[in-house]
Specification:
Layout lengths: L9 E7 L6 H13 L5 E7 L6 H11 L4 E5 L5 H11 L4 E4 L11 H8 L5 E5 L7 H19 L11 E4 H4 L12 H7 L4 E5 L16 H18 L4 H26 L6 H34 L8 E4 L8
Parallel strand pairs: 1-2, 1-4, 2-3, 5-7
Antiparallel strand pairs: 3-8, 4-6, 5-6
C-alpha cells in the first residue's frame, strides 16, 4: 500500500530499456545534480520490459536508497507508455523527463528549473550540438522538426529531446500513446501551455545500443497526422467529418439527379443507368457513415476514453512487495 508522501518539489522520470551498463552511472549523476538543489525530490525509473540486468540493478540500488521508485512493465510497450506510467506516479510539483542512456546531462536540470520559474508551463531541451550519427539520426530529426513546426505551429528546434521539464498540473492532463512522447509540446499547446526551450548538453552514447530504427518513422507520421487533426478539430471533430460527409452527400445528390435525367432519356441504355444508381448509393452511404463517425467522435471527446487495465507493477523497498 502506498502511504501519503511528504511534499516533493521535483520528480525525475527516466524510461529504461536494456541499459544495464548505464543505470548505476546515471543514478550517481542524478543524485549529485538533484542533491545540490537542496529541495525534496524523487527519482522514478521505468523499466520498459528490459531483457538484460537493468531491473536487477535497479532493485539493488533501491535497497540502498529506499526513496527510489521503480516501475516494471511486463513487456516492452514503448517510451510513451513508460513516460505515462512515470507521470501517473510522480508526486512532484515539477516533473522532469530524460533518457537513460547518459546522452542527456543531469547537470542541465538546475538550469531547466530556473527557466521554468520564469513563468513557463514547459521547457524543452534543445540538443544544438547533437552527438549522434549524421544520416541516421540528425538529418531525419531536422526534417521531422521542420514538418512538426509547419503543421502544428509549435516553434521548437528539437521536439524529440527527452530532457524536458513540466508543471505537474499540465502533464497530468496529457494522455500518451503510440509515439506521442515526441509531441508532448504539441499536446501541451492543445492544453494552452506556455512553452519555451533552452540549449542543453548532449553526449555520445558510450554503452549499449540505440533503440531507434527507421521503422518507427511510419508510426511518427501517423501520430503527427492525428495531432494535426487534434489541433484543428479537437473540440468538435464533427466539423471535420461533417465537411467530408457533406461533400460525399453532394456528389451523391448530383449523381442522383444525373440518374433521373438519363432514366427519362430513351436513348440512354439501362447499364449506364444502373452504374449511376450504384454511384449514387455509394456516395450517399459514404456521406451518412462519415456523419455517423463524426457523432461518435464527438461522444468520445465528451465522455473520454476508457482506461486500459494495469500493465505494470510498482516495486517498493521490500524485494517481495508489489504496490
Amino acid at each position: 500500500m502506498v502511504h501519503p508522501r511528504d511534499y516533493i518539489f521535483c520528480s525525475v522520470v527516466v524510461p529504461l530499456m536494456n541499459e544495464e551498463e548505464n543505470v548505476r552511472a546515471l543514478h550517481r549523476s542524478l543524485k549529485a545534480a538533484m542533491g545540490g538543489l537542496g529541495r525534496p525530490y524523487e527519482l522514478i525509473f521505468v523499466d520498459d520490459g528490459s531483457t538484460d540486468r537493468t531491473f536487477e540493478i535497479l532493485r539493488d540500488l533501491q535497497l540502498q536508497e529506499p526513496g527510489l521508485r521503480i516501475v516494471k512493465f511486463r513487456r516492452n510497450f514503448g517510451q510513451s507508455a513508460a513516460m505515462a506510467a512515470g507521470f501517473e506516479l510522480a508526486c512532484g510539483e515539477l516533473i522532469i523527463t530524460m533518457d537513460g542512456d547518459l546522452q542527456n546531462d543531469p547537470n542541465d536540470i538546475p538550469r531547466l528549473l530556473q527557466k521554468i520559474e520564469e513563468g513557463f508551463d514547459m521547457v524543452s531541451g534543445w540538443r544544438k550540438n547533437r552527438q549522434d550519427k549524421f544520416l541516421i539520426r540528425k538529418v531525419p530529426s531536422k526534417i521531422a522538426n521542420r514538418i512538426i513546426m509547419k503543421l502544428t505551429g509549435v516553434r521548437l528546434h528539437d521536439t524529440g529531446c527527452s530532457l524536458k521539464i513540466y508543471r505537474r498540473e499540465l502533464i497530468k492532463r496529457i494522455r500518451l500513446y503510440g509515439e506521442l512522447h515526441r509531441f508532448i509540446p504539441v499536446l501541451g499547446r492543445i492544453e494552452g501551455a506556455r512553452i519555451s526551450e533552452m540549449v542543453v548538453n548532449h553526449h555520445p552514447r558510450r554503452f549499449g545500443k540505440s533503440k531507434y530504427n527507421i521503422s518507427r518513422t511510419f508510426k511518427v507520421i501517423m501520430d503527427l497526422t492525428t495531432l494535426n487533426l487534434f489541433l484543428k478539430y479537437f473540440e468538435n471533430p464533427l466539423h471535420f467529418f461533417g465537411v467530408v460527409g457533406f461533400l460525399f452527400t453532394t456528389f451523391g445528390i448530383v449523381a442522383l439527379i444525373a440518374t433521373a435525367y438519363f432514366a427519362l432519356s430513351p436513348e440512354i441504355a439501362i447499364p449506364e443507368t444502373n452504374l449511376l444508381l450504384s454511384t449514387t448509393f455509394l456516395y450517399m452511404a459514404g456521406g451518412f457513415q462519415l456523419l455517423l463517425f463524426g457523432l461518435i467522435a464527438n461522444m468520445v471527446v465528451k465522455t473520454g476514453n476508457k482506461r486500459n487495465g494495469q500493465l505494470y507493477e510498482v516495486y517498493s523497498k521490500d524485494p517481495k512487495a508489489v504496490i
